[in-house]
Write the structure tokens for this entry.
Amino acid sequence: MTEKIVLVNEDGIRTDGRKLSELRPIKLEVGILSNADGSAYIEQGKNKILAAVYGPREVHPRHMALPDRALLRCRYHMAPFSVEERKSPAPSRREVELSKVIREAFEPAIFLEKFPRTSIDLFIEVLQADGGTRCAGVTVASLALADAGIPMKDLIVACAAGKAGGHLVLDLNDIEDKEGEADIPVAYMPSFNAVSLLQMDGLLTIEEFQQAINLALEGCKQIYALQKEALKAKYQAIKESTEVTEEE
Ligand code: CDP
């Protein structure tokens, strides 16, 4: 008989030492790849994810071009070494689904109509996965889009909440995702108080569902502040380096 994993102990502490409504430590960096038009990197707990953006640029193949707006394409991909058991590098059904829902999460935010007949290509590369990669992927992709200078109504930020070990928890890690009772990833546009991605697996009462959504949105608001700081840090660094050059 397999032993049941204790996801939350009597003190309300989770397997990775967090409190129930605590995010994993997050590190964000903007503009780290020189060959892409925009790029960013996120570490959220053990997740390590890169995002890169090309565009707006000419569409290939040309027949895919849209006369009235830019074509947004998204590829979410997990490196073969990103998970415990080697993953085939070929796109899985899961990756095809995630690429679609992430693209749809961004469509309402980007001024696509400003760039007819062009494409904006968004790549999300998961280097190390530990649960919640679609959310961390959205958060980092938003920064890569901003870094590429793509005009957006707002940054999109994403975070999951759910239930593990009988408790509502924020920002589920891999074991909570797999062994827990429910997981609700949410992508959010804070300035519009609007949600552009909402998925759920597992079982919750309606009351728990409402509480979990609110918890996820609280998480999103905290991460949104970090996104803005990361963007400012990049431009501060550029400002300082140009000031030094001017002085020389
Ligand atoms: O990553 P996210 O929670 O958005 O998606 P998921 O389909 O709920 O996957 C949860 C976690 O399962 C991932 O973050 C990975 O840590 C793990 N996973 C895995 O171990 N092997 C895969 N082929 C896919 C996912």
Strands lie at 26-30, 38-44, 47-58, 71-78, 118-128, 157-164, 167-170, 182-189, 194-198, 201-202. Residues 108 and 196 are 7 Å apart (CA to CA). The two ends are 71 Å apart (CA to CA). Residues 26-247 form a domain with the Ribosomal Protein S5; domain 2 fold (CATH 3.30.230.70).
